[in-house]
Amino acid sequence: MEKMIAVDKLARPEENILISLEQMSTARTEQGLSPFNAMPFEDDFLKSRLHGICAGEFQAMEAAGRTVFDFPDAPWEFKLDMARQVWDESRHAEIYMKLLDYVGSYYGEFPESEVLWSCTQAEDPACRVAGINRGLEGLACDVFEQLIRMAQKMGDEVIERSVDYVLADEITHVRMGSRWMRKLTEGDPERLKKAQDFQDNIDTIFNFSGSRTVPEDAKQIKQRMGNKVLDIDEGLTIAREARLLAGFTEEEIERLIKGFAKSAAY
Amino acid sequence: MAELGNRANVMGPQPIARIVEPPPAMIAAADALLAALIAGRRAEIEAAADPQARDAMRIIADSVKPGAYDKVTIIGQARIAKHWYTKARLTGRTAKPFTLQFRLGPESADGKDGGRWTVREATNLTEKRSAWSK
């Protein structure tokens, strides 16, 4: 079996529409939307955000599975953790497919981009876990914490509890990533630096166009959800508490906030 | 705990939104474009494309031999906000299947149905696994 497979080798139903990140960006900006991700002010925010997460769970499941296979010489415990993650992500994908149904959507309503998979393409397992488990799963903590707060405001316990359940796993995945990034690079600062740089690149990719800050400082906008008008975050926030639980340091979180604030896209 | 997949049992107070169906005018525009492609009606194909997509549509039209295909299958559709992607396959007895994917957008900014829809991008997916293929 081939290692480090290209993104188009991922199996998808033929009826699914797959596009590049560039195509997605063009289609969104032509309609006056932010380039990469559905933002809370959009009509279809909830459907579109849940769909993006669902597709992300599929790619995360595939990525963890490939990590088990791509690094046969890695420690047995490392492969066990990655195998566990495959199982977790598959449950998450099922949960999000049901949530899509719940909000009147379905997997395939929106196109899927290859961006998450592109973030997994590292030939060193330390980089792989830094990118996926710390970069992408850290981002997932941010996205999920925000969804939970929105669901609480909507009074929607289905979304609140479902996403909280998934968030608990993501926190564990980040911790696994931190543990293995350090363990695999023990005594090799150069390798550690490479892994951290790989993660930094991923953090930069997901620097969307909105202002990213902690929830307490987030600008609020009015959004209609069902029969309610709610004050919700203008953009994607950074979940300080969830990230701390996941093992990120205060310094790392501050670096994220400052990094996002000074980005050109911001 | 209610079964989340069963709409009758959902417990959240948020009204369950309806599934968004493809607008009939978009479907009609897609059908017309594909019919023009099969028949080789170049002027019609050109007129259906926005300036940014004309070159891509021209290349696709060059690859479709008029009269070689007699059947169109819509494989899938998906949307980004008010723009719709369509993936379609052309088949015929004498030619290899031809697969393409294109995005249609409404000319009216509000995306309401009934207006004119134009091609904003088009990709030849023949012999590719997907648009993810490099």
Explain the overall architecture:
The complex is a heterodimer of chains A (266) and B (134). Helix content of chain A is 61%, strand content 6%. Chain A is mainly alpha-helical. In chain A, the strands form 2 sheets. Chain A has a two-stranded parallel ribbon with strand order 1-2. A two-stranded antiparallel ribbon of chain A has the order 3-4. Chain B is an alpha+beta fold and 134 residues long. The longest helix of chain B has 16 residues, at 24-39. Chain B starts with 23 loop residues before the first helix and ends in a 10-residue tail after the last strand.
Concise account of the structure shown:
By secondary structure, chain A is mainly alpha-helical. Helix content of chain A is 61%, strand content 6%.
| Oligomerization state | heterodimer
Q: Describe the sheet with the most strands of chain A.
A: 2 strands, parallel
C-alpha termini separation of chain A: 42 Å
| CATH hierarchy, class of chain B | Alpha Beta
Biggest interface, residues from each chain: A-B, 50 and 38 residues
Count of helical stretches of chain A:
9
Low-confidence stretches of chain A: 261-266
Given the C-alpha coordinates, what overall shape of chain A results? Answer: globular
At CATH level 2, the architecture of chain B is Roll
Mean pLDDT across every amino acid position of chain B: 88
Whole-number total of structural domains of chain A = 1
H/E element order of chain A: EHHHEHHHHEEHH
| Count of strand segments of chain B | 4
- What is the radius of gyration of chain B computed over CA atoms, rounded to a whole number of angstroms? 18 Å
Instruction: Give the helix tally of chain B.
Output: 3
Under CATH, the topology of chain B can be stated as Nuclear Transport Factor 2, Chain: A
Instruction: Give the CATH superfamily of chain A.
Output: Ferritin, core subunit, four-helix bundle
Please name the CATH architecture of chain A.
Up-down Bundle
Number of DSSP strand runs of chain A = 4
